[in-house]
Amino acid sequence: MTAAPELLTVTETMARLKVGRTKVYDLIRTRRLPSLKVGGCRRIPDYAVRDFIQSQMELGEAA
């Protein structure tokens, strides 16, 4: 059995990505950062943040 992903708050995601709240919500709105609602609170799986960082690094290498 695999462990469930850790669910991060928007504030925790902001800290990991070193960006502001507006940017995190923009990434969610544009579906570049998957998220879910838990009881009205937005949560981002930790793997989604890692995947986003990896995809941005790959884009940087291609430039």
Describe the structure.
- This protein is 54% helix and 16% strand.
- With 63 residues, the protein is of the alpha+beta class.
- A hairpin with a 2-residue loop joins strand 2 (36-38) and strand 3.
- It is globular, with a radius of gyration of 12 Å.
- The protein is built from three helices and three strands.
- The model has no long low-confidence stretch (mean pLDDT 92).
- The protein has a three-stranded antiparallel β-sheet.
- Helix 1 packs across helix 2.
- The longest helix has 17 residues, at 46-62.
Short summary of the structure?
The protein has 63 residues and is an alpha+beta fold.
What's the topology here?
Blueprint: E1 7-8, H1 10-17, H2 21-29, E2 36-38, E3 41-45, H3 46-62
Antiparallel strand pairs: 1-3, 2-3
Shape: globular
| Low-pLDDT runs | none
Strand order of the largest sheet: 1-3-2
How would a crystallographer describe the biggest sheet? 3 strands, antiparallel
Estimate the mean pLDDT confidence. Answer: 92
Number of strands: 3
Distance between the termini: 39 Å
Output the number of helix runs: 3
Task: Assign the structural class, choosing from mainly alpha, mainly beta, alpha/beta, alpha+beta, or little secondary structure.
Answer: alpha+beta
The proportion of residues forming helix, as a percent range, comes to: 40-55%
Radius of gyration: 12 Å
SSE ordering: EHHEEH
Share of residues in strands: 15-25%
